[in-house]
Amino acid sequence: MRFWDYFRTSKPSTASMAKERLQIIVAHERGSHAQPDYLPKLQQELLDVISKYVQINRDDVQVQLDRNDSCAVLELNITLPE
Hints:
Layout: H1 2-7, H2 14-32, H3 39-53, E1 61-67, E2 72-78
Antiparallel strand pairs: 1-2
């Protein structure tokens, strides 16, 4: 019988396929929610405050959040007019 078992294709179980798909979905969701919920509002408020003192183009502002092991760094790059 082992001879014939060699030629048979073994199909993965539906449970293992469902588990694998779920792991892919969870990994994708974790990646898309990497930034905190407050970040867009914080960015808007920072731009509003800076706009009170300097006239800036909102397209010239870049906000990035970097996370290390023990801290998070919010980087705000603004191209100021001359």
